[in-house]
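Subject: for your reference before the review

Hello V.,

The reviewers asked for a structural picture of the protein, and I figured it would be easier to keep everything in one thread rather than splitting it across files. Below is the amino acid sequence we used in the manuscript, unchanged from the supplementary table.
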Amino acid sequence: MFRLSRAPLKPDTLRRRLPGEGAGACVCFEGRVRDRNRGRTVRLLEYEAYDRLAEKEGGRVVAAAKKKFGLKAAVCVHRIGLLPAGEAAVWVGVLADHRAAAFDACRYIIDELKARVPIWKKEHYARGAAEWIAPGDTRGSKAPSGKKA
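And here is what came back from the structure prediction:
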């Protein structure tokens, strides 16, 4: 299951969506908004997504992970909207028979999510500037859809 959320993530609630019968391993990843990037103080992040395509492609990523790693369950939720430093931006949880598959699947989901799912982030800095950041790019980039930063 993959979905986007405008509401704050609740890891305990999300973890309960992973049925535990027969699983030998549960691995969860929580990605948070950093307070510094490239030597600048980050005040907040603004996430935007092409919602319909993001949900569809995110679902494909999770389904592929379940098949590839033989998972019993997998859940991924990504925030959109304005998030202050320290707040959870993405949560991934997986259940598998063994820990190696669970760790590998969790990493696969977050890496594929960043590479394939149309979600963009704009960093808002303490000194007032803001900049769109491309997925996987540690340098600044242009805004999605011609938007101005």
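For the response letter, the relevant points are probably these. The chain has one domain: 2-137. DSSP finds three helices and nine strands in the chain.

Happy to draft the paragraph if you're swamped.

O.
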